[in-house]
Structures are given as structure tokens and as C-alpha cells.
Amino acid sequence: MKQHFPLKNVQQEKRIYRNRVFISVGIVVFFLLLLVTRYAYLQIANYDEFSTASDQNRIRLQPLAPARGYIYDRNGVLLADNYPVFSATISRADVKDIDDTVKRLIPILALTEEDIDRFSSRIKTSKKTERVALKLNLTETDIAKFSEVKFQFPGVNIETQMTRYYPHGELFAHVIGYVGRINDKELKSIDKDLYAGTNLIGKIGVEKSYEDLLHGVPGNESVEADAHGNVLRNLGRKDPVRGNDLYLSIDYGLQVIATEQLAGRRGAIVALNPKTGEILALVSSPSFNPNLFVTGISNTDYSALRDNLDQPLYNRAVQGAYPPGSTIKPMFGLGGIHYGYVDWATAISDPGYFTLPGDSHRFRDHKKSGHGAVNMHKAQVVSCDTYFYVLSYRMGIEKMNAWMRQFGFSEKTGVDLPSESTGLYPNPDWKMRTRKSKWMKGETISVSIGQGAFTATPLQLAMATAITANQGSHITPHVLRESHGAKPYKVHNAPDGKIQFNGQPEDWIKMRDAMVDVIQTGTGRGIRTPMYQIAGKTGTAQVKSIAQGKKYNEALLTERQLDHGLFVGFAPAENPEIAVAVVWENGKHGGSAAQLARPMFDYWLLKRKKDPIRPADHQISGGLMTAGIKPGELPSGITPVTADANATNPPQSAQPATQTVPGTAPSTSSQPVEND
User: Fold this and answer.
1) What is the pLDDT of residues 604-661, one digit of tens each?
2) Around Cβ 485, how many Cβ atoms within 10 Å?
3) What is the CA radius of gyration of the chain?
4) How distant, in Å, are the alpha carbons of 17, 68, 133, 296, 303 from that of 300?
5) Angstrom distance (rounded) from CA 663 to CA 255
6) What does the DSSP 8-state code read for residue 438?
């Protein structure tokens, strides 16, 4: 049977095809409209937001660290310089996995745990595009090893950065101090914008006190970078402002002389200008090399300094608290005149000891047989302890305390150096507060000759001596003489007050004359000279207590149990140009300490202008040239000179641990012994 098929329905097929075309076109148009809408949203509605984000991926604002200001002595000798080192740097914008990158760099750059910890602390608080130093002061070996594998570390760069160098090594360590890597504690307190791109900050000394002046103001530059952080071109720049240059009052030559006197000894010497308060020399011995701390001190080097029994990190001149011994007798004697308990004619009979009424205990004089009839002048010249025992019994500790504080004892001097000690001038309130016991009359006797609980710093002794030389005009010691740079700063170089004194102006002159006779015929006669007059006072302070009835036997004591030797003085006596305080730990006698002061007087008054001590190389320093200062433009007619070319090479930052001076605990004996 033949099968028949229906004819093709052309109209229906056309209709189906047309519907399908409409649907397809509709879908395409819908998605095109959707895409256009999205483009419009991104390009128009959110143009500012996404344009900025795009530019940030391509254009970066990088901080430019300012150069640190230079430090000079009063004559233009360069004391703190800047020099370039190579550093490995990373920014969060260039490296996605910083932890992994640092881990892989450990064997290549010989990174220590300290390097990693410091970097981790800094990178967390840095701006995204700020380049943070992973390691400073790379060696040639470090750079060579990194160069071979640099392609494996996109975003890690080797850059040149400036760091500090102290050309004179130990000579000015306790004055200038040093800079070191910024630590976690400092990161929390500093202005991060101000320190963007900076790795170093002042830790101690002038570097810390005048950090705001020395640091400068950072700049920035806008750069175009690729995806790996490589700079393609510079788009704009704001130059940083270099820190101020500081000219200290310290004299290089006098500092050398003072250092030579204390070579191989423990102690401190401070010299200042009585008329202005300018510190001319400040030495603490032994010292240390501050260059070790700049880019990171090794554990071995730091342990050697920290564990050294002589404590070279400790600034004895500003922090060391010593019993001042008889050096305070001129100031104390003026207090007796101020309150009217004695005058220059008041005399006592000295049998070699003093006893309190109703007490058989004898407070001995250093001369067992006594000095016979003694007035104020003779008491100073022969350093008669008994005279001051009697005076202290009359005055009482409260008036003694009030008077001596006017000379700066038990107070900070206000010196522009950090971590200054106040020393201690004791009184009943202090003893009750700290020891929960009442003040004993015998303690007043000990304090009268600078012993017992009485302690003072060498700087305090120098200031008190300067006030005496000034006939009561108060000065504040300072090491900054001038500051030059973008940040204005004015230094006060003059007396800043007058202590209250109820005596006559002639009393100051008479005390000066008594101090002159100390040097001419008394306990300091070993340093007298016909060239000029020195007014001074020697002092010997116990370290080890001597029991009642026992004799001081030097042969039975260890070297660190020997008495401290002290000296204070000024010259020329009639028109003082320099005041000096010397503390020689375990130096046995005040006369020995006076011997250390004589070369300083000689240099300052006789040799400084004719034959000044200068570093070996008398050329303009690199620091001056970098600063753009010409020799004829130096302040106050300063002639620039540089450091010895053979000075210590710049190596590598830790901070000195809190120290205590060995062998300087104040004697608590009720039988003070003075032997000048």
C-alpha cells in the first residue's frame, strides 16, 4: 500500500524561525544593556573612586628621609658625621607575602632574630608604600649574594641610606651619645609621618636631648612604578629639610686633656665657664665606642660592655652620685654666715674631735691632735672638720638643707643631657619617708663634711663651684652653644638668678681668698703655680666605714675600698674663666684629684690660644661641605677642622642597661674621716 506524507508548512516554519531570532536578539540586547549599565556605573558613577585606586597601583608617594644635622665642638671640630650604607628595604605595596619573603632572605642576608623582630614591628605600622629597612649596613658579601637571586624577590630593593658615624670614638661618647634603631616603645610615641623612611633615633646624650633639632623634616617624591615596585619615572618631588647643625660648648682640646688625666682610672671630670654655664669638658671614665651601637651591636660586644665591672656605659659625670667630702665646705661655710651663726672672726678650739652634749661619742677630725684655734679662713685652708661639726650643730639639718639646695644639691641642675641624677642632701623628712626612722643628731655632723647620706654628682659640684666663683650668681650648665638650621632655637648663655644671701658682698671675696690659700699653703698646695691664681678645695670621701676607735689602714683595704679623691676649683681666682670638678674613684686623697685638674687649668689659660690641640687633619670636613657651609660663613669665627683620619672605623644598637656606680655607696659611719 502506498504511504502519503503531508506537504511542508512553510508559513509555520517561518513563524518559528522569526520567533527564535527575536528571542536571541532580545537576549543579546539584554546582556548588552546590562554590560553598558555596568560600564556606566564603573566609569561615571564611581569614576573618582576607581580612578584613584588605579593611580595608587601605578603612582606612589614615597617618603624621603631628612639628613641628620651635624654636631661640632665650639671650634668647628666635627664630632658626629653622616655616611652612606647599603640597606635591604621592603614595602607592603610591593610584596604580598612578607613573612615568606623574609624567611627566604634569612640565609641570603644573614638576618638575625633581632633584625626580623625590628623589621616586623616597623612594617606593621608603616604606610603601605613606605620602604622599611630589613637590614642596615649590608656587607659586600650580602649584596653579592642577593644580586644573584634578586629575580626571586620582586619588591625587595638594595638602597643607599645615611647613618651616623662618630669620628672620635670614645672621646665624646658620654656627651654626644649615639643614635640607634627605632624600637617598639619609641614607635608608639613618635610621629610616624615625621619619621617615615627613617630608621635611627637619638638614644642618649646630645643625640637624644636635641632629637627634634637634629632630625629635620622628611620630604616625599611621587613616582610611577610597575607591578614589581620598580620605579619607572619620577613625577614630582618635595625635598626633605636637613636637621639643624649643633655647635657644642665643649672644647676638643680640653676634652682630650681631661680624658688623658683619667686614662686607666675610674671617675669623672667636668669643666665649665662660670660666667655662662657652658660646659667646656665632660668626661666619664672608662668610656665606650658609640659607633658600635648605630646599626646594631653584637651580643658579644654588648655583653662585654654591660658586664664590665667598671661600667663604661654609665655616665659618672651626670649620673654618678658620690659623697662630696670637704669640697662643699666653702658653700657650707657661707651658709653659717648667711644665718648669722658665725663670721670670719668666729673661732673654736679644735682638740681633734667633737662630741655632742651629753654624748661621749667622738666625731674625729682627720688630724688626730687637732688644729688648735681655728676660724673660718683657717678651717677652709687646713680643712678642719671639727669647725664644721660645731657649725652644723648650731645650724641644724633643716637650715643646712635649705641653704645647700640653693647651690643645686639634691636638685637636677637642668643640664641639657638626659638621665641626670639629683644626688641627695638628706633631711628628717627624707629619712622618715624612705627608712621609716627618725633623724639622729649624729647624722647632721656627718653631712656637714659631705659624708653620711649626702651625695652629689660631679656636675653638681662643678655648678656649685661656679656659683661660688660668681659670688652667688646662679648658672645652668649646658652643652649646646649654638644651633643653625631651619628650626629656630636660642641658647641662654648667662647667669639666670641669684641665690639669697644675707651676708655682705665681701664675704664672697673672703671665701675666694680662703680657697686661694687652700692652693697656696693648704691641702691643695701641690698644684700651685706662679702663672695664675687657683681658688680650690680638696676633698676625701670614705668608701668603707671605720669603726669607733679604729685607725684607717690603707694596706688592709682592696683597691675599690680606698677613699675617693675629689677636687673643685676655679681660675683665675679674681676673674674666673673656668671651674673644674674632679672625682677620682678610689683615688685615696683630694690632693691626688687636684693633680688631675692642674693640666686643665694650664691648657685653658696658658696654651689653648697659642697651641690649641686639634685633630690630625686640618681640612674642611665632609659634613660642612655637604651642609653647603663655607669656611667664612661659620658662626662666631669658627675655623672648621675634621677628625683624625685614623680614628675608629664605623661598625655597628642596643641601649645601655641601668647601671649603678661601683664603690660609691655613701658611708653610713657615724665617724666621718676627712684627709685632704
Assistant:
1) 999 999 999 999 864 334 444 443 433 334 444 443 443 333 333 443 333 333 333 4
2) 18
3) 36
4) 90, 29, 24, 12, 5
5) 25
6) P
Q: CA–CA separation, 562 vs 555, rounded Å?
A: 9
**Residue pointed to by grid coordinates 669643666:** 271
Bridge partners, residue 83, by sequence? 163
Contacts of 385 (CB under 8 A, 6+ apart): 326, 354, 363, 364, 365, 366, 449, 672, 674
> At 331, which helix (H) or strand (E)?
helix 329-339
> How many CB atoms sit inside 10 A of residue 595's CB?
18
Residue type, 309: L
Amino acid (1-letter code) at residue 150: K
Query: What stretches in the chain show pLDDT beneath 50?
Result: 55-56, 618-674
Q: How far apart are CA 328 and CA 425, in angstroms?
A: 12
Kind of pairing between the strands at 372-375 and 497-498? unpaired
- What length is written for the chain? 676
Backbone angles phi, psi at 90, to 5 degrees: -140, 145
Give CA–CA dist 263/266, Å, rounded: 8
Q: How far apart are CA 321 and CA 425, in angstroms?
A: 11
Catalytic residue numbers read 326
The backbone region for 275, taken as left when phi is positive above 0, alpha when psi lies in -120 to 50, beta otherwise, is alpha
Q: How far apart are CA 650 and CA 167, in angstroms?
A: 8
- Cell output for 398: 633643716
Q: How far is CA 614 from the centre of its chain?
A: 24
Q: Is the dihedral of CA 290, 292, 294, 296 positive or negative?
A: negative
How many C-beta neighbours within 10 Å does residue 627 have? 18
Domains (range + CATH), the chain: 62-141+157-217+240-248 (3.90.1310.10)
Return the number of other C-beta atoms located less than 10 Å from residue 261's C-beta: 21
- Does residue 206 contact residue 417 with C-beta atoms inside 8 Å? yes
**Pair 409, 460: CB distance under 8 Å:** yes
Neighbouring C-beta atoms of residue 55, cutoff 10 Å: 11
Bridge partners of residue 657, in order along the sequence: none
* SS (HEC) of 34-55: HHHHHHHHHHHHCHHHHHHHHH
CB count within 10 Å of CB 310 equals: 14
Are 129 and 61 spatial neighbours (Cβ–Cβ below 8 Å)? Answer: yes
Spatial neighbors of 228 by CB under 8 A, at least 6 apart, are 94, 154, 155
Cβ atoms of 451 and 563 within 8 Å: the answer is no
In 3D space, the residue among 348, 359, 358 whose CA is nearest the CA of residue 390 turns out to be: 348
Question: Does the global pTM surpass 0.85?
Answer: no
Q: What is the pLDDT of residues 238-282, one digit of tens each?
A: 889 999 999 999 999 999 999 999 999 999 999 999 999 999 999
The dihedral through the CA atoms of 437, 440, 444, 450 has a sign that is: negative
DSSP-based three-state secondary structure for 445:
helix
Nearest CA to 635 among 70, 196, 225?
70
Single-letter amino acid code for the residue at 421:
S
Cell of 267: 671617675
**Side-chain half-sphere exposure of 88, counting CA atoms within 13 A:** 27
Torsion (CA) 375, 380, 385, 391 in degrees, nearest 10: 50
Assign 3-state DSSP to the chain and report helix, strand, coil percentages, each to 5: 40, 20, 45
- Listed residue (52, 230, 214) closest to 131, CA to CA: 230
